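Collaborator request, handled under Task 6.
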Amino acid sequence: MTHTYNITGMTCNGCVTSVKNALLKINGVTSADVQLNAPQATITLSQNIPVAQLQNGINSKYTITAADSAMMSADMSTVTADKPSYYPIFLIFGFIAGITLLIQFSKGTFNTTQWMEHFMAGFFLLFSFFKLLNLNAFADGYGTYDIIAKKWRTYGYIYPFIELLLGIAYLTDFRPLAINIITLAVMGISSIGVAQSLLKKITFQCACLGTIVKLPLSKVTLFEDLLMVAMSLAMVLMLTGVF
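Structure tokens returned to the collaborator:
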């Protein structure tokens, strides 16, 4: 599919080359013809790419907007076509919480530390599973808002494996203090990108469940990140004897 986009901010042929090279690095862009006079870009795509993702791929001093009506309609549909349902993510949280609580009740006592370890293990294992179903698509989506993945796309491919390893570590109680410190750092950084996008009111698809379950980036995304931050911080404080 080929679409036309308006681009503002270009002042010279160097700008044209910079924009073209940046566009060609975006996964799903097969060709890009950029012109300075009546500044536009004709881009051929192998898949539907939201304008927001194209914007994220080029220097922030340039602004790209849809020029043809077909692309404007397609891009708008990614935001407004269906009202988002957060049922899947709440269902997952409910399953994880329910199963981990049952484990504690089956023992006759409730161990808060162990329950949080099991909850976080379930969280990371399940969420990494959904991301790994389509790793390439996750990396594309995550790169639209995460502060590290924006600058280093490879991080989008690494991140699901970080979650997988964290899940295994929590499940096996491997070096709990070190693992909780790592979780605090990883999820803290992740929450920064989500918060920045929410403050700027930029519409992106949330990549927390990969691309299988389509959810917009929202306060729910921020909540899940901050929940892991809070739980890992609590674990660090408990393990260090602060409380």
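The cover message to the collaborator said: "The domain at 2-80 is CATH 3.30.70.100 (Alpha-Beta Plaits). Strands lie at 2-8, 29-35, 40-45, 63-66, 205-206, 215-216. Please let us know whether this matches your experimental observations."
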